[in-house]
Each structure stands twice: as C-alpha cells, then as structure tokens.
C-alpha cells in the first residue's frame, strides 16, 4: 500500500512531529504541506530538524491544496478543523489533531471551547476498550489530547476493573511544547527554565471533560476528576500522577493483575517491573507509554503513573497509530517504542 | 547582638546555602566550618559561589572544633546529629537541619529511618499554629524537611479551619538539589535534564510521616496523606500541589478567607491575588512562600498549591528564621522575600 | 545619604534585576516605576519575584513621572534613552542601561544601530583603567553591554600589559535573558532548552564595536576582534572564552602576574586559583566576576575566560556599582560577590 | 545480508545509543550485550528507554561471550579495547568507539593517555578526504571522538582548499552525555543545569591531538590548534565554533564554494542556506551534521560552525555509518538525518 498524506499546519510543533514520523513511515508519501501565516516559507527555516524536507515550501491551507490525498492530517488551532474537513470528500481519511471532534457532550464543548459543537469522530486512543473496532476502516479520526492520553492510559484499567472510587485526583507535568509554538512571554526560555508552575487549576483546563469522558466510559458510570496540569522545564514529555481511593477488598495483587491484563497485548504500553517508575526521558521521541501502579495501603489509594512524549504518543504518534488501524496497516508501522535518551 | 555560628557539614548543598545566607546576616559571625571526607579542603574548591569564604579550610566535625560558638548548625546525614548534639553544651543553640529530631512518634522514626529514635525538638516551621512560642528561647531546633515545609504551609489553613476531609492527596515536584550532592547515576545532569520522574511512591518517602504529623496537628485529628514526590529538571524549587475533599458548606469565599487570615501577618508567605498561581522561579533563592488556593466545585475539592525554594525556605532559610526567633532577633533578619528571576 | 531612584522600563529583565538589587541597597529609596505597554499594571503580575513591590503600579515613561528623583535608571530599548535623558535636569544622575551612549565612534553607532549618534557618556565599567576617575561625580553614565563587560574584563589585562597580539578571538555563551523579555519564537523554552546556537556571526553583533573600543583603549592601539556569541540553554550567565596570540617572551608566569596585578584590589573580580575554571553557576545572581587565564605554549596563545551574570554584573549590578562611585558611596554598597548555587 | 552484532559496554551512554540505532538497522541482529560491573543486570533497569531490549541480561565482557558475531562494537573505557580486540579473530569486524586506535603518533597517545600506544586503525570519519576508501572492507575501525567529528567536519574544507592559515581557534560546547555515565559530583544535574564552564583549557583535552591530526591531513601541513571545550547545560549535542585567519585573496564566495563542494554529495552533512546557523536541537538524535561558514572581512577570519549530536554522529551513528561502509552496505542504512525537535 502506498498512502499519500497531506499535513495542514506543518509549521507548528504537532505538524513538525507528525512530519518527523511520516518521513520514517514506509507506506506514506508526503504530499502537500500547508500553513497559514507561514505559507510561502521554506520548511527548512521553520523546522530545521526535518533536513529531508528543508526545501519544501508551505502552501496555504485550502481545500484545493489538500485535495487528492488519501489522508489529510489537520494540525490546526482548535475550532478550525470542521470547516476544512467538510470540504474534504468522504473517502479521504481525515485525522484531526485538534480538539474539535473529541467530546461527545456538546455542552462540555461549548463550555470549554466557546463555540458550537462540530460533532464527534471515532476517538484515536486504540488502547481504550472498544476503540480499535471504532477506528478500523474509519474515515474520520479525532486524535486525543496529550494529557487525556497519558491520564486515561494510566487510570482506565483501575476503572475498568472496578478497583477504585469514581473520584480521581490527577496532577500532571508537561513539557513546554504542549503549549505550542506561538510566542508568549510566559513560555520564554528565560521564564520556564528552572521553574515549575501550575495552570488551569480547579477544573479549568480544556482536557478535563475529555478525561472525564474516557474514565467514565471505562467505569461505566460517571467519574469525577480533579485535574491540575503543571508546566515543567523540559521541551517534551508528560508525567501523569493519578490516584483514586481503593474500593473494599482491593489488594496490591489485584491492582497489579488488572494492569498486567489491560496491557498484556499492547504494542506500545509497558507496565514496568515492580519497583521501577516511569520517567519522561525514557519515552522521549517515541510512541511508548510507561506505566507503573501501586496500592498505598496506609492511604487507601491506588496510584497510577504514566509517562508519554506529549508530541509523539500524545499527538502525532497517536495520530499515526490510529491511521494505521483505519487503513488496515499493522498498528505499529512507522512507530517505535525506543526513546532517545539520555 | 553578635552571634558566632559554626556549620557542621559545610560542603553539601544545605551547608552551602546556609553559609550563603549567614554571610548576609548582619548579626552573625561565621566561625568553624566542618566536613568529614572534605576536611582539609579549601571551601573555594567545594562551594565556588561563596567567594568571600573561598580561602577558608574545612575542619573535621568534632565537638572540639564546634565548641565555643553561640549557634551550631548541623547539616549532617540523617542519624548523625544526636551524637554531635549531645557533646554540645545546653547553652549552645543547636539547629539540626537533618531529620533526627523532627518526628514525635518513635515508631514512625524507626520505620522510615531504621535506627533508634533520638527524640523531638521544637519544630522550626514558625508559620504553624503555636510554633513561634515553642521556638522562642529554644536551645534546640529541628528544621523541617523541604517537602513538609511546602506541603504544610499549603494545606494547614484548610485543616485548621476545618474546611476539608482528613484525606489529603499531594503531588510535589522538587529540584534536584533536594537529593543532595552525593554523586549518584540517576542524579546526573544527563539523566535529569528533560525528565520528570516520581520516586518513593505509595507512602514510602520519609517525609510522609512528617507531613501527617503537621496536618494532623492542624486538624486536631488524624489526617491521612497520599504523597507522591517527583524529581523535576531544575536545580532548586518545590511546587506542591495539594488537595482534599471539601466539607459540606464550603465555598470559594470561605476557603479564601481562611487562607487570607492564616497568612495575614506572615512576613514570608504571600497568598497570591486570585487568578495568579505560584511558580518556583518566583521564590528562587529567597525565603518566600507563594500560595494559591482554589475551590473546584465540580470535583468538590480544595486545591492548594505552594512554591518554595527547597534550599532556602525549605532548609537553610527556615533554619535561620527559626534561629532568629530563638535568639529574640527580628524573625526576618538576614532573610529576603525577593527571588532571583528570571 | 538617602537616594531616591526611578526606574524607566521596570517590566523587563534589566529593570526587574535592577529593582531586585535596589530593594537591597541600604541608601536607595525606590521611587517611580514606569513602563510603556505595561503602564497601569501591577508589578506583581509582571515581576512576581519582587514580592515587596507586588502592589506597585507601573506609570507611563514620561519626564513628569521621572522628575524629582536623585537618580533615574533607563532600561529602555536602544535608541530611546536620549529623548528621555535630555528632559531630565543636569543635576539628576542618569544611568543608561541601553546602548545609546556607549560608543565613541559615531560611525560605529550608525552602522550597528542605524540611527543618529546621541553622544558618549562616562563608561560604567569601573575595573577598566581610568574608569573610576571618569565616573566619580558623573551625572551621566553609560552602562556597558553584557558581553563587553565579560570580554573586556577577561582580556584587558593581557592588552594593558602588552602580552598579546592585537587580534582577539572571542566565543561567548549567554543565557537567554540577555535576549530580553519580548516574546519571539526562537526564544521559546521549547526551542532553547537542549540547544546551543550561534547568532550575529562574523562581526555582526552590536557588541563587537564596544569590545573593540575597550580592548583598543587598553592596548593603546587598534585591536581587531572576531566575536561569536552563542545562545545557551540557561536563563542567566555569560561565559566568555577569549584568546589571542602571545607576543614573544611571554611565559605562563608573566601572564599570571599581569592578571594578578590587574585584579589585586578589585572588590568584585576574582582571579581563580590555578587549575580552577570559572562557571556561570558560581556567579549566579551576584556582581562577581570569575576569571582564569592560561598560556597554551603549544598553540602560542593566551586564553582568558570570564564568567559573569549577564543581568547582574553585566547590566543592573554594573549600573549600581557605577552609581555608587558617581555618588561617592562605597563602590560595593548593596552588591554581593556571593552567587546563588547550585 | 544479515549481520550479527555484539556490543561490549552496553550499559553506558555510547553503548546505549548504539543499541538504539542498531534496533532500527534493518540488516543487524543484536547478539551479545556485555558489561563489567553491571553484568547480570537487566538492560531495562540500566537503559529504560530501550523498551524492546528490556529483558535482556548483560553478560561479562569476555572473548567467549563476544565470539561468533560478525561485528563487535567496543564501547569500553580508553585503554581497554586492545586487549579485547586481539582475542577477536581477524575476520570479525571490530569497531572501537574508544580512543585506543585513533592517533597515529605514538608520542601523542602516550602524552595524552599515559599508556603504551596500541596502534592505528582506519579512521571512521567517512567525510574526510580518502576516508571511505580506507574503510571499505576494513576489519578494524577506530571511531573518532565526538569533538574531533564536529570540529574536523567544520574546518577541513577550509584547509583542504587552502583558504586559511594553519592556526585554528576552536571553542566547542558539549552536552553532558559526552562526559559519560560515571557519577561524578561536577556532573550532577544540580551542578550543570544553569551553568556553562570550560575544562581542559590550554590544549589539555585529549581530543586536541586528534583534531590536529585531522586538520593537518586536510591541509597537507601541520596545523596548530587552540581548543577549548565547554560543558553546556543540555544532555546531548556539540556546537563547535571554529575559526582561522583567512589567506590573501579569500572572499566570501570562495569560502562558500569550497564548503559547498566539500559537502555536495554527503548524505549526512548539510551546509545551511546563507543566514541560517546551526543549532544542536536540529540534529538531536540524528546522524546529521549542520554546518555554516562565514568570512568576517573586518577580522580577516573564516568562521565555521558545526552542530552534531555527540552520541549519534559523534559516536554511535558515526560507528554505524563506518560499519555500513566496511560491510559494503549503503552508507546511510539505519541512520537518519531527521532530528528530534523541539
């Protein structure tokens, strides 16, 4: 199979990471690359690490430019995907790396994004129960948010196995690339190096309803979530520390068994050996997920910690993994579980 | 008043930070500086940032060397302070920056530190209810751990005002200096830059019982704690994200009022204006504590976040603040709330 | 003496650092604080590390606001100082932290800054030969650039003692705060963390003529300079690696002697013991300069390396040091040689 | 072709990087992995980023364990390769990532490494004139040092085209992984984050004679080198800033032409478009080399700057590239020019 893929939004971090991965994907040929304010510029000036594409020039993001591809990836600002997608034919696989089609609840969408709800597409987190079936043959895919990817993978086995109460407390640290490439003073290197800081505290982060949606689906009942994201002084990576009160009768063994079963056949998720904990450095640049879980008997809580690369498994790698499934390719094609460390 | 101070353990990070602050303290004259494996070396080779002390030579840590001072600071490995302290006279103010005399419960000590309990000294966290009275005139002071300092300050007002349930969930990120200066592979720059990782998960960290002790005292009843420390890619700073389930009737206003009252007269703690969140960079090198609190109505939790410099307010600055109280000096002498940023 | 000082440009990095130091200066009272686009904002929102000034509100940068102070510090974009300064009376001490009055050669100014030359003020690098005399009693001071500070201090003794040929090669690494607080994509944390990159290569950096001016003055003859600045992944600090071909007869001893003499009485410069090399971490947040020099017999070159904090000795600390001299205060008042490390 | 490869020294940074690349090499099967102090340990505990090899156990580094492979990579401490290599048969391709067989001059070896010279093997920097011919079919390969790789590629075209005087001045910044994985206090994260510092100043660094050897070969005459390495606060990457006095008649065009010709057919080296400068982030994790060159007419010097990943092109990638040539494979097999950024 030879797949011709276009990337709308090729100058940003998500688009750049996707191109990095597409270049290594044996079945993909890279077609049109588009940008808006950067249209007309050489990619080498915008993404100097993508040496083989240095002389490619960005085109404007229009339906004409994006036409004639098998797959179109949308790495656009939130709220802009629907207008582009509806002009692409129903036979084109459209993979939206923005938030537009992730949420099922229109009210949640409107509350957190402030615009009309565009709809819901098959959700590109294959490891969740039932997700692969929805993705197989799909022509539209909503790629999950980076935090929801890390958090949902760390916690869904506990909810799916009915081990914990429906109130999760999550504190996650993200590298700065999660905040995008738009220049804002608080994202300057001078500000972020040497500093940890929270944001969107108290349920205000847009990824909160997406996490609630995933965990509630796993639990088969509403799960409440306290989610605090923090900005960490590193370019990439998410470390999600998640916990919930254990239900009666839960033991360290039952917790470990549930996680071992949940991830037994997963190509990208590794439940670490007991005593070893995830580090974001170990998954740097890879599609791997490292998970560890513990039962704190004194506090009566199950603590699950997951590490991903926010740009790879958390965005572009997850997008490719779902594309592989939708196209009937081996799910791991063009993806790696090998991190770049140290 | 002119105070002559000795520092045992002057080659490590805690000792170095203490010297940095002592050099700026108008009432202190720096006396003996001791080390063990580093005795005989110039301080300039070990602490090149302490330019005025570059030509001082470390002496061995013995009672003879430490005799004849008004104050002796102990920055020794855990378990070594008692033997040194008992050879110093009862009129000398001994400030222990190690853990030896922090815990009241001998069983906790033995479980977490694996040696016989040495006793309990007045606890050097002046902001806690009743702490200043115990410190005034004291001749022995136990300086709190860095995590307990950040966490206790962030959460005690919620417990003292009976706003939250007695089960706290804490995830804290610390700079690497909190792990000390002993060279271990996982603390190499190559390993920590670009990486977030947890450790001591599931209640295993030694600071857990100290946090429990402080919060329980504030609540007047046992408080359970789920504490997950993480290592962040920065040299200094702790960001503690703490939460607990709100009790019935709690409102955003009642939460804010409780915190405003708790810190109204505190010289070092600043409850930030609503909407502004702490960042470790803002307190870098200072004794300041920045706190923010929110009530997440959807999740039903109070979230309190505190930022400190682990070496300053979290160790050496806290030690000096308590020394000032013990000696009857103005509590803020030689200390600053001004961080070094960016 | 009680000195009332205004700061124009209080929201940027230079202004913020100056305020940090002024707060600790025993003879200074902080008067008006101004900004342009930030006028009307609380300083606590812009400089959250300056806790004692958190509730101060920025005023617009006008002659009226700046009137009535003993000292006015200008931390404005290049080219804006002259217009402000000429509206301040001749009895006011005006300290310009911009470039406007540094260069003696109008042609150099116009070539590198592209606007008419405003003039030349006494140059605020007290350690250079003759500088203190020019600063004593001055009412106008041009604060040197951060790179010229580091480079000139590292190299002038070699030129003053006629040890090296008049062609210097300089490669310097700077922390990102040297590039200021304006948000530009290449200064994002995501871009700078993990990356070293050069800029202004081939003589294009605006600090080149200032370095030439200083070294030529020390040599008493024109000195050519090859200067390559690089951006390093750290918030602060400059490490300047400078070398020049040794003249005939030069020995390791004659080099060391020249440097030892040059800095013998300097309160802020420390020539390190042989074998110890400067590190920017050692001078973090301080006005200290650490210098080491070596004679590479095989290559026939003298190599001098200097480390400073670009915001302190390189900008705001240097400004205060010169202010002290101009006002007849002890030169070291309110300044420290103690770095914040680790 | 199917090549079975063993790696001696699989627990260090060079060995880990090599395994990361070997896992992606389509013609290589990974055989024995050995360590010394770490023999018996799971690789997953030592190199947690190499997820596919997590359950492999390190064996001791003996001739028996290393026997029966087509290729043996030696990532051993300097001075240990000869003893291992001589017990491996002449038909085995031995690729030494240590320094033992790089230098041609026995006196240089003894002066800088303090042990008897083991000999000289074909030098694994294919881009140097004549190097590929020496590598084709070779059974022994000496992989260059990381600094010599960056510096030689940046400067050899200027010497090969006789553009510059035979005195080069080089200042290079390296990420901390270049210093290895052995835990030393000055390499702690607390020490290196936020700090730039030089070392081996004045010609003392072991890579100096190797640089001299390469540049002199390119020039066809002895080239003197002043080399100052600096440690930068990043895990990976080398930025080498190199310059030399231009010979009479040199122009910007002649310089650019020489570099364009030198790298025209090189698969891994990219001479950047004019005005764009290398950044280590752009080559992170890749075998790419980014080069820019300028002629500073005022200073009369040619300035060439190169960026590599010290562990990839600077060590393990360079080793694989040379292995490919020796085995008659396409030189780029298993290697990429795509960096991981941001």
Automatic annotation (TrEMBL), chains A, B, C, D:
InterPro entries linked to this entry: AGPR, AGPR_AS, AGPR_dimerisation_dom, AGPR_type-1, NAD(P)-bd_dom_sf, Semialdehyde_DH_NAD-bd
Enzyme class: oxidoreductase
One GO-annotated biological process of the protein: L-arginine biosynthetic process
PROSITE patterns on file: ARGC
Annotated Semialdehyde dehydrogenase NAD-binding domain residues: 4-136
UniProt cross-references to Pfam families, sorted A to Z: Semialdhyde_dh, Semialdhyde_dhC_1
Protein's cellular compartments: Cytoplasm
EC number, as in UniProt: 1.2.1.38
Function per UniProt: Catalyzes the NADPH-dependent reduction of N-acetyl-5-glutamyl phosphate to yield N-acetyl-L-glutamate 5-semialdehyde.
Entry similarity comment: Belongs to the NAGSA dehydrogenase family. Type 1 subfamily.
Protein name: N-acetyl-gamma-glutamyl-phosphate reductase
């Amino acid at each position: 199979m030879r797949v011709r893929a276009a990337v709308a939004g090729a100058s940003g971090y998500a688009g750049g990471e996707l191109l990095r991965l597409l270049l290594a994907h044996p079945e993909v040929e890279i077609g049109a690359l588009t940008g808006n304010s950067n249209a007309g510029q050489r990619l080498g000036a915008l993404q100097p690490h993508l040496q083989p594409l240095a002389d490619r020039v960005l085109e404007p993001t229009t339906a004409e430019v994006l036409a004639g591809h098998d797959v179109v990836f949308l790495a656009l600002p939130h709220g802009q995907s629907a207008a582009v997608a509806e002009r692409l034919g129903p036979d084109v696989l459209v993979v939206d790396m923005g938030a537009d089609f992730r949420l099922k609840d229109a009210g949640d969408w409107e509350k957190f994004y402030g615009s009309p709800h565009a709809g819901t597409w098959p959700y590109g987190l294959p490891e969740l129960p039932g997700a692969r079936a929805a993705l197989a043959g799909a022509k539209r895919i909503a790629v999950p948010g980076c935090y929801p990817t890390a958090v949902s993978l760390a916690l869904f086995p506990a909810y799916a196995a009915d081990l914990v109460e429906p109130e999760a407390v999550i504190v996650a640290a993200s590298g700065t690339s999660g905040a995008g490439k738009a220049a804002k003073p608080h994202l300057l290197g001078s500000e972020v190096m040497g500093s940890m800081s929270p944001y969107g505290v108290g349920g205000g982060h847009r990824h909160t309803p997406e996490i609630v949606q995933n965990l509630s689906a796993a639990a088969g009942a509403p799960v409440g979530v306290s989610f605090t994201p923090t900005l960490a002084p590193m370019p990439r990576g998410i470390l999600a520390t998640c916990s919930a009160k254990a239900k009666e009768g839960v033991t360290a063994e039952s917790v470990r068994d549930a996680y071992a079963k949940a991830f037994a056949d997963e190509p990208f998720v590794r439940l670490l050996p007991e005593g070893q904990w995830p580090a974001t450095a170990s998954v740097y640049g890879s599609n791997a997920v490292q998970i560890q879980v513990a039962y704190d008997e004194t506090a009566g809580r199950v603590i699950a910690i997951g590490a991903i690369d926010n740009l790879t498994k958390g965005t572009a790698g997850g997008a490719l993994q779902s594309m592989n499934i939708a196209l009937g390719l081996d799910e791991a094609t063009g993806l790696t579980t090998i991190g770049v460390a140290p």
